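Page header: ASSEMBLY MODEL / two components / 495 residues total.
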Amino acid sequence: MSETKPGWRELPFGAVPYKPSLEYHTGDWGVERPEFDLDKCTRCTLCHFYCPEGAISFEAGHPEVDLRYCKGCGICANECPVGAIRMVRKE
Amino acid sequence: MSEQRLLGLNGDEAAAYAIKQVNPDVVAAYPITPQTIIVERFSEYVADGLVDTEFIAVESEHSAMSCCIGAAAAGARAFTATAANGLALMWEMLYIAASLRLPIVMAVVNRALSAPINIHNDHSDSMGARDSGWIQIYCENSQEVYDACIEAWRIGEHLEVQLPVMVCLDGFTLSHTMENVLTLSDETVREFIGERPYIKVRGHLGEAEFRLDPEKPLTMGPLDLYDFYFEHKMHQIEAMEKALRVIPEIDEEYAEVSGRSYRLLHPYMMEDAEVALIGLGSTMGTVRHVVDRLRKRGVKAGMVKMRIFRPFPAEELLELLRGVEVVGVLDKAMSFGAPGGPLYEELKTVFYDADEKPIIVNYIYGLGGRDTPPHLIEEAFKGLLEVKRRGEAVEPLNYLGVRW
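Prediction written out in full:
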């Protein structure tokens, strides 16, 4: 990370983060990402609810993954009842 | 100075009585063996409606500390009591309480850790927790237990400190022995401790009081890793340094209402002492008795009782022990495989760079509640006088009262 972080005298007490976890991008932890087969997908939204990171949204009317937060755990692929999700290597 | 009432209380009851007067929001405890009369007596106060406290009977000591952490994080005053293996079961939560800067107060009735099974007094439980980030106060008698259980809130909650506090009292020797205790009125205690103050922190939604409030959300202690953890540890280091200054300040205020002052250390007959013993807890009463006896025989003996072990009052000790020829360190706990007991090691560290320093020897004593009567303390003093005569310590690490 290239950002300059505050020194200990500037940080709040009690290990309180000064920025929300939304700004803590953990998507680079994993090696895989889900790939959705939109022809098979029934839009049941189970993947959205099972995703531990809340990284899958249906705002576009179909599943989309936010790779800033997706750790590639594969739970979505495991839970998809119609096998519409395949885990592929992140580039 | 306010009016006081003399009560017959053992150490446990003295703690419970003080906490009753403090009237904390939450007390969480589990009746593990060994639990103490502290929570037993306190639960009676709850049943009798004498306190407003939410008493939570949890399923383990780990949960007791977790509960206190949750309550203190929400802004409550939280108290618990434990001993020996109960403290050991709290281990990971001790560090979390201190790192999250939650001013919880806990009475620790010092007892030996199993195995083999032993419920009697030594300091192996709380000495093991000396690196957990808690302030540690060691008491000599029930009066000190009572006073520490009141002062602890002000110390821990001080805006520059914000750390949890352990009030340590020797199992059975103090916890089950009735003594005269001067107690303040409920109003005086309430006035002294006041309301819990909160520091202001800058959270991700701006400035907020340091407590969990749905109206002003904060996140406490999430993922820190190598980015921030070290910096947050610096906060704890600084808080302990500040506590060294804050403790005597609070103590002075307490002396105004109670007439009793404790500060960081208690020297006794140290002005011209040539040999001295230093140690913690109830044994120091016996040492004082022996010092008197030796003084009558013309021996220039003295003693220093450490009241505060964490933070370690290094400067005060340097000042006090500089001119003494031989210092014996009484440790009621052993760090297995270490050069000596915990107090001995720290005292030696403190004196390593000093120009003028005493010869320092270690006496491990009283493990598992092994009785330490005056003649054993005299034996230690005899050893110190022998070191003084020779001008060197033949054996720096000694075991007092063990069978050979």
